[in-house]
Amino acid sequence: MKISTSFLSCKNLEKGIKELNFTDTDYIHVDFIDGKFVVGKTIPFRKLKKIPKLSSKRLDVHLMTDKLDKYIKKFSILNCEYITFHVEATKQVEKYISMIHSYGIKCGLAINPSTSIEEVIPYLDMVDLVLVMSVVPGYGGQSFIEETTNKLLELKKYIQKEKLDIIINVDGGINNETIGKVKDYVDMVVSGSYITNSSNYQEKIDTLR
User: Fold this and answer.
1) Domain ranges (residues) in the chain
2) Is 128 noted as a catalytic residue in this protein?
3) CATH number of 2-208: 3.40.50.300, 3.40.630.30, 3.50.50.60, 3.20.20.70?
4) Choosing from 34, 60, 128, 171, which is the catalytic residue?
5) Which listed residue (31, 34, 60, 128) is catalytic?
6) CA-CA distance, 18 to 16, in Å (whole number)?
7) Are strands 2-6 and 106-111 parallel, antiparallel or unpaired?
């Protein structure tokens, strides 16, 4: 299972990114919040674009915005492995899947806790990853929503049935206690405050693996 570490809760962005560079986290998870589509703590793009200078880790970008044309283009110049956008953000889902792929970047599709798995099924043969939110997007440190486990199981069964090559990712409230609720259904987890609020990032990452 892969680990993608979010730094949204870091008090010092530069220090946090540099510390993550010395861990074995697979990706640095970049949450971009526009303050409109999702309201919450946000870090401006002018600061986020400095990340590749601070770390060699590939980026796993989560766009929480409906201004997809603008921000897919902006993030495409960074060291991205994945760019994920929300199915709730647009009626032109296929357009933005193609746009992300046109930059040679893998595409993910995210769903909020209130959104059914049925909303992403029509696109599963087009994307590389599905991100299931296990908290309401926008704020770090929230508690894991228990119903998420059923959604992950449903998604995994469908993917296995259709023999699709797609990664299941989960984001929100992931720590040493909740990892046991998702590990059988996912290929990747996003964890933020559990790791970055600690004094030893690698130790916390190890507990998730």
Assistant:
1) 2-208
2) no
3) 3.20.20.70
4) 171
5) 31
6) 5
7) unpaired
